[in-house]
Structure formats: structure tokens, C-alpha cells
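Progress narrative, work stream C.
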Amino acid sequence: MAMKLFLIRKRFLATQSTSSSLSPSSSSSFTVDFLVNSCGLPLKSALLASRKLKLDKKNLRNPPFVLQFLQSHNFDETHISKLIEKRPEVLQSRVEGNLTPKFDFLVANGFVGKLLHDLIIHHTEIFKRALDSRIKPAFSLLKSILHSNENVVVALKRSSRLLSADLNVNAQPNIDFLRKEGVPADMVAKLIILNPGTILSKRDRMVYAMNAIKNLGLEPNNTMFVRALIVRLQMTETTWNKKIEVMKSFQWSEEEILGAFKRYPQILAMSEEKIRSAMDFYINTMELQRQIIIACPIFLGYSIDKRIRPRYNVIKVLESKELIKGDMKISTLLNTSEKTFLINYVSRYVEEVPGLLDLYKGTAKRAEKDA
């Protein structure tokens, strides 16, 4: 270990003079040089990181120990670079007092290899939280509900609040309430995996959302119940009403809107602009009847530019050449997978319709470029 630490320092000091000229300020050049030469950060990232971290020859003793520690847990240069880009201050962490006990706890609980790397890199909040009062209780609670380390990592990736909050105070009461209201344990787990932050909602907000979704007739043991609950928890009453009014502007009744919401809750999670643009294309360009969209509300969730418009263009060409009938079921055309659509409606007719593939891919490509 001593030899490796020596080599880290030696490599850095040997290259410092050649790279310091890249830094715009002499006060940060030492830090930038170390981040570039010893941690593998690109210069731009190193300059940004140097705003949160200040190193000089007097306090350079700790960073090599941190790098050596990470390497001992099989963090490669890419892992280390990503980690330090996100939290440069980790280089000043105490190895024995901070890093070692936390890593020991994680490894002992099955977080090794890729799981450990993913957890640490995507959830750097762990370096700031106390092991006994925050990390251990959080992992214990999450593991008891989510069952696998993979699910715990997914949840933590999606919400840093899971380690910054006291889960016994903020999450456990909501979990108990959901179970009391008839939400099965696997559905509670699904809610936490899909949107971990919702389990930290204020109690009165959780109660309100629960009653609102139950009043729609959704059953707590249904996946759509969980998805609808998430949407309702994320939205204020004012925003909810605005979305309802947007839908009504397209001649939907409130009963039709709520019915569509029950089948596809994301319909009211989309922005007002997204709802308007999608409805405009379906009604004015594709000339779909309102009832078709009401019956298949998932249509509104599809990307118009990346999925629907390219397919529409292909179908119109095929219809104009009488290669397919114009009375095909629209839900089949829009819901079918990308691979199936390419096989059935593009590849099958490329010889009869020169440029069909270019038309399809060209439209999709332009949409990606515009996005």
C-alpha cells in the first residue's frame, strides 16, 4: 500500500508542472492538476470540481489514501473519475473513520462488485450520512420491503432523499398507512421502486391522495392503483384541475378523463403542452375520432415525433400505393413494437417503395436532432 501511495504522489508531482498552465488561476491550479493527473478527470470537469475542493502540498496527504482505498474495492479509473466529478470532497474523507466502516457495512450486506460501484457513484450522499443513525436504519427498512440489494440500489438511485431523511419518522408511518388501507406488500415495494420520494410524502397529503384514488374505484392490489397514487401525490390540486381543463378543451367529459386516467395514470402526469400537442396531431393530422384516444389513452404517452409521426408517414405512403388497406386497426399500428413495425410495414415493402426506409428513419432522425 505504501508503494502505491508513493506512486500516486510521484505521478502527480511529475506531471504538475506540465499541466498547471491549463488552469486559469494559480490558486486552483494545484487542485486541477491533481484531479486531472491522479483522478482522471477531464480538464473541464476538474475546473468545475476545483470550486468545491481546494488542495495544496500541505493537505495532499489524504487524497492518495482515498484513491488507494477505492482501488482496493475494485473501483477503476472510470468509476473514480465519475465519483469525484459528482463529489470532489470525497478526496478529503477520512479513510478509517468514514469510508472503511461504511464500505464494510455495505460489503457485509451483499453490496459488492457492480452493485457497490453503482450505489456509491450514483448515491454520493452516503459519504455525508452517519452510519449508525442514518445508513443502517435506512438499509434495514428498505431491504425489509424491497427484498433484494438490486431493488435497494434502484430506489436509492432514484431518490437521494432516502438517505437524507429519517425513514423511521418520514417513511414508516406512510408504509403502515398503505398496508392498513389494503395495499399489499408487493405493491408498496413497487411504489417505492417506481418513485421512492412518494413514500416520504407528508401524512395528510398521503391520506388525501389515497382517498382520491380509492374514490375512482381502483383496487389497492392493482398496479394501476400504485401508478395513479404516485401521479396524485406529485401534483397539487391546482395543477390537477388545470390538466383536467386541458382535456375538457378537447371535448372530453370528466367521466371520460377519469376513466382514461384509471387505465393509464400517466395521462395526467404529462405537461399541458405535451397533452395539447399530442391531441392536436391525433385529431387534426391523423383525424382520429376522440373515442379512439379515450379507449387507448396510452397513445398520448407516445412520442409524436419519434414514434407516431414516422409510422403515420409510412402508413400514408403504403395506403396511397394500395399496398395496405386503409381500414387497419389503428391501435395495432401504434402499439406494436418498433421491431415488429419495421418488419411488417417497412422492410416488407422496401423493394416496392424505394426510399421507404429513408422516409421512416429520416423522420425519426430529424425528431431526435430537434429534441
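Work stream C, second folded protein:
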Amino acid sequence: MAQATFTHTGEQVQSYKLISGRSIPALGLGTWRAASHATNSVFTSILEAGYRHIDTAWEYGVQEEVGHALKAAMHAGIERRDLFVTSKLWCTELEPERVRSALSNTLQELQLDYLDLYLIHWPFRLKDGASRPPKATDMLEFDMEGVWREMEKLVKDGVVRDIGVCNFTLNKLNKLLGFAQTMPSVCQMEMHPGWRNDKMLEACKKNGIHVTAYSPLGSSEGGRDLIHDPVVERIARKVNKSPGQVLVKWALKRGTSVIPKSSNPNRIKENIQVFGWDMPHEDFQALCSIPNQGRVLDGEELFVNKEEGPFRSVAQLWDNEV
């Protein structure tokens, strides 16, 4: 269910009600590959553009920089309760005994007392020092139920408000739902007109799980730069918006929150200006009909080792759900 709130700049920002009863802002700033720009990007997004949702992860290597920005924003008058901060549990920490210490490290780096959302980053457990991509001997058994029980305890202890998953397949989501006592509030996944991920979206909706879309603009590095897609460009000209705004609006119209990443201050401000206008239905449908569906960020670089790995192909990595 979508709700509307307003930032101090007067920009209308939707939020979605989670299964827990809490709300997640519909638009956030992604910090993957933000590197040295993370502090300035996060501070600009909050203080100048009105963002309240910041997405990060231990694996991104920028949590300390994000923490500096959050502290500065709160020092400038932003209330902690008005921010929504997401981080993620990395593959090497996916054993029950390491969940709480991983969270403690994340909270220390972010200079926070609690997280609004904590996600399992990828559903694979790696040993410390694993090569990238991993060899078969680098992959350890993942006790999903045991890890989830520890995450549920974090919620009960108040150090995490909501828990969820990222980069899950239908197969793995169904496994989790079979034993979860606290339902995952959010499933974060790659999603854009070039990879609609319809089956996962429908499964999440059926189970009351909110979806956050990452890489909403595609990826020039991954060979699918939707900013310059002819259909996107045509619609952008028609509605007098930027291609990026059109792609973000498409994600919102599907009922998902969305976390575009940028270190460009003007782009950061532009991306949130997507709530005071609508996209005609025929244009939304045109974006839903873009052919050649496929993941851009398919995990191959991270996990697929064709000679020595536990995953010899992208299809195997994703349980053949391609």
C-alpha cells in the first residue's frame, strides 16, 4: 500500500507499508560502487534533495563514509526516526554465530544504534578469504534457517526493525517461507524494463513481501544501458522528463520501491522528482513490453567459476530461473 509524505523541500515522496506495519520510502539512494563519493552523495541526497532512504552494504566498502554523512545530516537537524537505512549481511557471515557480530560491525561503521532493514545479501555462504569467483572448496553449507532465526532475534532485540533478502530465487524464497517465523518484509532484486523479473514480483506480492528494485536504469557496464533505449527516450520526450525519471517512475508504478545510484548532485536531485506527474498507461505498457529480457547484474563476476566453481554457469547460480 502506497502512502504519501512530504520532505522539507515540499517534494512529495511516496512510502510503502511493509508487512511489519512500518513504512519504507519509495525512493532511496543506492551506494554500490559509490567509493570516495559516498559521503558527499548521501549528504547531498538527504539535505539538498530530500531523500530519506539510504541503501548500503558491508560488501560495498563504504559504510564508514555513509556513516559520516548520516551523522552530519542528523547534526544538521534531520531526525533519525525520519531516515530509513538498509544494509546487508555478506556471504562470509552467513552462519548463525556470526550474524550478530556482523550487524554490530555495520552499526559501528554507520554510527547508528539500529538498522531499519537488514538483508541477506546473497544466499550463498563463503569461507573467509574465498577467491572471486569462488572455487568449490570456498563454498560452505548455508544454514538458512539458523541464520534467519538469528536475524529474527535482532528484530526482537530492537537493533533491526525489519529483515529481508536480496538476490533470492523463487526456489530459495519458498524455502525461507517454509520456516520463517518473522516474514521477510522486503525482497531486493534487479528490476527494470530490460529484466522485469515478473515471477519473483508476483510471488512477493502474493506473500505480502515488498520489493525494492536495484539497477533501475540498467547498466552501461553490463551492456544494457536503458537510459539510451529508443523506447525510453521516446517516452521521455513525450512526457518532458529525463530517461532516468521515466525508468524510476516505471518502477514506482509497479508498486516497488527503487534505489537508483548516482554521485552526480544534479542527477540525485532529478531522480527524486518523480511524484508530481504520471506516466500514461500506454507508455507504461510499452516499457513492460521491451524484448530481450535478461539480468544485467547476473552475479557471474562474483560467483561463476566455469572450471573450478560450485557454480559453472549463470543459470546454475540462479536455480535455472532465467
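The two ends are 29 Å apart (CA to CA). No further action is required on this item.
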